[in-house]
Amino acid sequence: MKKLQVVILMSGLFIAAQARAGFVFGYGDGFINQNFSGILGNNFIVNSPVTVNELGVFDLDAPYSPIPIAIYELSGSTWSQVTGASATIVSTDPVDLLDQTRYTTIAPVTLGPGTYSVVTITSSDYNSGNPNVGPSVVKFNNLGGALTQGSYDIWGYGSSLNPTLSGMYTTGPNDPNWPWPLPVFGAGTFSAVPEPSTIIAGALMLLPFGASTLRILRRNRTV
Per residue in 31-49, pLDDT tens? Predict the structure, then answer.
């Protein structure tokens, strides 16, 4: 019984650690370094399902106007907005100082395996990472392998986020004009946690380790 209790405790600690939300694109060392005003997006690949619970934007000060943000999924050559994964950031929303992100909570939205982009309308106050001016400091959190950084960022001109987006310009290592490491731009981000099935699978992997640890502890007590 004691063995089972300790193993359950270890599994519970693993689940608790994995369940903490983290911003996928972090801007802790970001700074405003370009005046582009338009649509910027950071692409990412979902390897195993995750649940999005917050949307945010790079922020050094309060927004001068509401900032729309949404997550889009790529199907063929079309980017379509994920139902429920959109919000508008306003100056009264909370700020995460560690990731320099102003964010808002949304009803949980699950993203299945596929290619996505978190997209926002930017201004000179919500735009960082132009390598012509300074190095990109955008950080990517893969949530324990549930996500992979996308092969490129997308951006374009516009003043609104439509249900679908097209005409985006790809940037990244193979681009002759913007060949810098990804992610290049600091704009939108989101917070997510792995789906329970993924977490439980990871916890189950700890069971043999937990049993082995208990045997060692028991052996030590009898010596």
Answer: 666 666 788 888 999 999 9
Q: Cα(221)–Cα(6) distance, rounded to whole angstroms?
A: 16
**Rounded to whole angstroms, how far apart are CA atoms 104 and 124?**
21
45-88 pLDDT, tens digit per residue, is 999 999 999 999 988 766 777 889 999 999 988 899 999 999 99
User: Rounded to an integer, what distance in angstroms lies between the CA atom of residue 205 and that of residue 210?
Assistant: 9
Segments forming the whole domain that contains residue 28:
17-194
The verdict on residue 209 lying in a domain is no
At residue 201, the 3 state secondary structure works out as helix
CATH code for the domain in which residue 29 is found:
2.60.120
Instruction: Give the ranges where the chain is alpha helix by DSSP (H).
Output: 2-19, 196-205, 207-222
Q: What percentage of the chain's residues is helix, strand, coil (to nearest 5)?
A: 20, 40, 40
